[in-house]
Design brief:
By secondary structure, the chain is mostly helical. It has a domain of 66 residues. It is 57% helix and 0% strand. It is built from four helices and no strands. The longest helix has 20 residues. The radius of gyration is 17 Å and the shape is globular. The two termini are 25 Å apart.
Length: 95
């Protein structure tokens, strides 16, 4: 079992929520898109490359331009965690 698989299995066991790495990526991109993060920023954040995408090759990207979109995504997740904990939700860290 790989290091990633071991880590995922441990988190899934502790949280009692089965998931895969693809589930995490899918959730991340769905939330990011719902926050109106630009498509090219989404691709960069997921490290996607499309060999058929000509325009992408002309964009000079700077990792600093990804900080603001990533912070928005982080803030969204943090607000949901805080909301759930304030409503008496199940906190997987209470073990």
């Amino acid at each position: 079992m790989s290091l990633y698989a071991t880590g995922v299995a441990r988190v899934a066991e502790r949280s009692r929520v089965p998931f895969t790495l693809d589930d995490l990526r899918r959730t991340f991109i769905t939330i990011a898109e719902s926050l109106d993060i630009p498509a090219y920023a989404l691709k960069r954040l997921l490290n996607h490359k499309d060999p058929n995408e000509v325009t992408e090759g002309y964009i000079v990207s700077d990792v600093n331009r990804l900080r603001e979109p990533m912070q928005r995504i982080t803030d969204f997740f943090k607000s949901k965690i805080t909301d759930e904990n304030n409503e008496g939700g199940n906190d997987a860290t209470d073990e």
